[in-house]
Write the structure tokens for this entry.
Amino acid sequence: MNTTESLKTISAFFRLVRVNNLLIIVLTQYMARIFLVGPKSEWRLYIFDYKQFMLVFATVSIAAAGYIINDYFDIKIDMVNKPREVIIGKLIKRRWAILIHQILNFIGIAIGFFLGLKVFLINVFAVSALWFYSERFKRQAFIGNFLVAFLTSFSLIVLAVYYKKNEMYVNIYALFAFSISLIREIIKDMEDIRGDARYGCRTLPIIWGIRRTKILLYIFIIIFVSILFFMAYSLHNRYLIIIFSGSIIVFSWLMNKLYWADRKKDFTLLSRICKIIMLGGITSMIFV
């Protein structure tokens, strides 16, 4: 393999494991450690704390393995929905993808065992759930959406379990991550409805249709924003109250864009907007 091919393979690997998303996980866990778990005055210690690094490394390893196995099972569907983005089978051989997936999972579980029984059990659950999601539940209505949303909040839940400090603050952001991820996953199902229908997937937009799925999303958005607001109010934290009050405006705008969406590119834009909202939520930890 020459240098050009090696660089192409490395680039393909980074795209396969969604390196941008992994960096977001790293940022989320370190910011949560500094601004939510605290105390903030000792932030320099957290950056160089090897246990914090191991916790983050385990989470990133499991997430990367999850992206690989998801693409592994979705090769045929992705050839319809996004043929230019298919990596496994084109740039990385299927057997190598599975091997890397297993190595990353082993790293995540082994580190979890080192950090403690609860972290170990959470990591084992995450690894198992990611496999069953990709292999089976992704093609079933709502179960797959719910599972991947829960796994998105996993990076914060594991912090609350490990540090056992300011759990309520961490769990509020875990709920926020769960909420926006669930909304985004359902929107992505509307975006990918053509390829999913061709290969027999039973996602919500296929079973209910786009219109009824949108109505469900409106209900979810209203419920989640209300819960987040009242959780913030119960803590009597004025910064959280302001942040989640402001989210009402953001989510109202999202609902308006969702109402008018009817083409693939519209749902692609909405999915990106959800990711931006997620980043905004992470950034807001600074003010808590």
